[in-house]
Design a protein that fits this description.
The protein is mostly beta strands. It has three domains: about 5-55 and about 420-570, Jelly Rolls (Sandwich), CATH 2.60.120.200; about 70-210, Jelly Rolls (Sandwich); about 245-415, Jelly Rolls. It is built from one helix and 47 strands. The strands form ten sheets. Strands 1, 20, 21, 38, 43, 44, 45 and 47 form an eight-stranded antiparallel sheet that branches. It has an eight-stranded antiparallel sheet with strand order 2-3-37-46-39-40-41-42, with no helix packed on it. β12 and β13 (about 140-150) form a beta hairpin. The longest helix is centred in the last third of the chain and has 8 residues, at about 560-570. The chain is flat, with a radius of gyration of 27 Å.
């Protein structure tokens, strides 16, 4: 199987700031293939350390290119690019020279009021006595004046918020400022001097919605990058539809509604994102805790989810109340099981994500609220005095299953859908014969069509694998004006990571699933050479694929049965 043309995934998943890094195998040599991702909002994933992380975590664009928009200058600033060696050993650090004390370089970044941000940048002195780093908006300033003695940073004065520094060697310092946003626009800003004609080197700007600084993550364009998710323990590409978290202050239980019989301790333990932001609640009498402070209205389906860590209470009950069709589900944290209608997922450090969902289509009342109880029996709705647990990350969304966590503060937040595609790859595809291979599963067996296609950009020539609107059914199709091949098969579980291979060749089509040939077609033509040139995780703007993909490979020849069995065996 040395004729692989395109390989995306497997052990080779990687995140670059603008793309998905796949691999092209030519004479057994891997070459990067960039797959385009469009989302235009931040989103979360579970990273390789098992922590929930915002993608991209660095909200600053062009973190190493300060001469590129949206970086802007105020006053007279001269920028010399690639002027010296950066902390990573590459010649990528820029020199900024200010001819007077008002000149600075800055960037405007969309943020959220009430969120704690950490702004950081690497700075090395050239000939400045006092430079400055700050976040500025129309209301407040987070300001740190950097006092230099030669190339040594001696102190930071006149700070608003918390500003610290750390030497990283070779005269470089990482400056870190942490603050709570009071405006929606955040503006990282660097002033090289408080005098005239003084300069500093800068590199590695980072703004993150986090209470502490994390390892530096370089950026170009910042939003449209894929999410490589490790929630199953292995890397997979996470592709989701648009969702909105309707719970405001999703991780601040002090803003929720709870009875007078609840003692709440804010920021009592480490949360699933690794910060000290999870709250503890303990009952002093029969009562409940209710995420959000409004009633929620849904059109068709609702899903409520919340992260819970066991205190001394084994049982948790989630209730959707006031709906015509209410839902009450009990969870057992010791056995990691849920009653019908509930799902329990395990996370790091003893955390679980519990979710319940229901359909309100046809209900007279589509508005309701969600409650959390700590009973002494599975499914009970009477909280017991002294029972306690930790809570974080509540989410109420329109949909039949829980999607990745969407953090909120004072308002609801929407995560846009992931749109994955790549055009102009006809030289990597054999349109005459080959194999399209996936290791993947959809997010839910919700009877919705989910399609991955290879086409010529028109609806007349299509090679596709589709999850059908019949339970667990998949379909392999080659369309060249008319249908040349159509093979149907019903999976045991479409949400599992199934290994699926679709072989296409003149009068020789086959579908393999998990080591077994499950369907054939011995009559049909394929395409002429250099016809196919685009791969898309959708069907021309509809039927988007939402799922997790561990591996995608496209072979330039029709593999043998022995090779296909080996490729698809679990």
């Amino acid at each position: 199987m040395a004729n692989t043309s395109l390989r995306i995934g497997g052990n080779n998943w990687a995140v670059k700031e603008d793309n998905l890094l796949g691999y092209n195998v030519i004479q057994n040599k891997y070459v990067p293939i960039e797959i385009d991702t469009v989302r235009a909002t931040t989103a979360t994933r579970v990273n390789e350390n098992g922590l929930i992380e915002v993608v991209p975590k660095n909200l600053a664009s062009y973190s190493e290119q300060f001469d590129v928009s949206p970086w802007a200058t105020l006053g007279t600033i001269t920028i010399t690019t690639n002027a010296t060696t950066a902390p990573d050993g590459n010649l990528t650090a820029d020199l900024i020279l200010g001819t007077n004390s008002t000149g600075n370089i800055n960037q405007s970044i969309s943020g959220t009021i009430g969120v704690v941000y950490t702004n950081s940048i690497y700075i090395k002195n050239n000939n400045s006595n006092q430079s400055q780093i700050l976040i500025r908006n129309s209301v407040t300033v987070v300001d740190g004046k950097l006092n230099w003695s030669g190339n040594t940073l001696t102190s930071i004065t006149n700070t608003i918020g918390t500003t610290t520094f750390q030497s990283v060697g070779n005269g470089w310092y990482r400056i870190v400022s942490t603050y709570t946003a009071v405006e929606s626009v955040q503006r990282p800003r660097i002033t090289p001097t408080t005098g005239t004609n003084q300069s500093v080197y800068i590199w590695g700007a980072q703004l993150e919605a986090n209470q502490t600084v994390t390892s530096y993550f370089p950026t170009t364009y910042r939003l449209n990058i894929p999410r490589i998710d490790y929630s199953s323990g292995e890397a997979s590409l996470l592709v989701e539809g648009q969702r909105t978290n309707l719970v405001t202050y999703s991780s601040d239980a002090s803003q929720w509604l709870y009875s007078t019989f609840v003692d709440l301790t804010i920021n009592d333990t480490t949360s699933p994102d690794g910060t000290l932001s999870a709250d503890k609640f303990q009952f002093t009498d029969n009562g409940s805790i209710r995420p959000g402070n409004v009633q929620f209205t849904f059109t068709n389906n609702y899903c409520f989810s919340v992260f819970i860590k066991k205190g001394n209470s084994r049982y948790i009950t989630l209730t959707a109340s006031f709906f015509t069709t209410p839902t009450t589900v009990g969870f057992d944290l010791d056995t990691q099981t849920a009653q019908s209608g509930g799902i329990i997922e395990s996370f790091n450090d003893g955390w679980f994500r519990l979710s319940i969902s229901n359909n309100v289509t046809g209900d007279a009342d589509k508005t309701g609220v969600f409650y959390i109880y700590l009973p002494n029996s599975l499914g009970g709705t009477t909280s017991i005095i002294g029972n306690n647990a930790y809570v974080w990350g509540a989410q109420a969304e329109e949909g039949s299953y829980a999607t990745s966590y969407i953090p909120t503060v004072a308002s609801t937040v929407t995560r846009n859908q992931d749109v994955i595609s790549k055009t102009g790859i006809s030289d990597l595809i054999n349109s005459v014969e080959g194999v399209l291979y996936f290791e993947m599963g959809v997010l839910s067996n919700d009877l919705t069509r989910r399609v991955i296609t290879i086409t010529d950009g028109t609806t007349n020539k299509i090679l596709k694998v589709e999850y059908k609107n019949t339970s667990n059914q998949i379909e392999a199709v080659l369309l060249d004006g008319i249908t040349q091949c159509l093979i149907l098969y019903t999976l045991t579980d479409s949400t599992s990571q199934n290994k699926i291979a679709f072989k296409y060749k003149l009068n020789d089509f086959a579908l393999w699933v998990n080591g077994v040939k499950v369907g054939t077609d011995i009559s049909g033509t394929t395409f002429t050479a250099n016809t196919l040139n685009k791969i898309s995780f959708d069907l021309f703007g509809a039927n988007y694929f939402y799922g997790k993909i561990k591996n995608l490979q496209l072979y330039k020849t029709a593999l043998t049965d022995e090779e296909l069995q080996q490729l698809t065996t679990l």
